[in-house]
Amino acid sequence: MGSLLVGGLVFVFLSMATSIGLIVRGRLPDHHLNAESKDVIRLATAVVGTLSALALGLLIATAKSSYDNAEVEMRTAAARVLLLDRVMAQYGPETDKARQLLRELIEKRLSRGWTAETTDETSSNAPGEYQDIEAVQADLRSLAPRDAVQHSLQARALEVSGMLAETHWLLVESGKEGLPWAFLTVLVCWLSLLFATFGLQAPANPTVLSILLVCALSVAGAIFLVSDMANPYVGLIRVSDAPLQFAIERLGKP
Questions:
Q1: What whole-number distance in Å separates Cα of residue 236 and Cα of residue 234?
Q2: SS3 (DSSP) at 202
Q3: pTM value?
Q4: Cα(238)–Cα(207) distance, integer angstroms
Q5: CA 86 – CA 188 distance, rounded (Å)
Q6: pLDDT digits 0-9 by tens, 144-154
Q7: Which of 33, 102, 125, 198 is deepest in the core (most CB within 10 A)?
């Protein structure tokens, strides 16, 4: 589900909860909303409000951690690509084919995007990216080192290409993690309860309604940010592919 859609649904739920509170307020007897009743409502909702704040803070921290990890993974992958290319360049012209395959792999990644959904898909007769990196490894294994130096470079190139393959499969395995939806659902229920009590206690004048509307929009915006950052390779807040762009400019150089 898209982050904008999640944020929009949260805004709708909170607005509906506020409207329900306002409707119920107009139908309740006066003694249900006297000073003592409002004090009890405030105390009860303070507990829910505290829990909601803690839960939202935890979600924000989790999403930020996912985003930061993805950014580190992107930079690490770009650095490994450059390292692999340089190791193969040092080996000699025998690795020209493998270097070209590596460049094509990065070009494909940039054109498709860095997501679990696109990383293994095939288009026309083009293989998935896991097959591309395996083709590079196959070329490296087929080399026949002439001396100890080339033997060392071949071993190093195979090690780095293995780390790139590992990064690929880690992306595939973790690509569908995202937000804990059960946790988010409970949080939205708590927030809806809070906004319903706001409507229950608030006088229905334009100033109060405007403030409640802005508050609902702010909370929905926070949920949108959390949802978007929890999927760091797609959406509006995504990890920059600048490291890969920088890497591809340097690939294939002598």
A1: 7
A2: coil
A3: 0.74
A4: 37
A5: 51
A6: 999 999 999 99
A7: 102
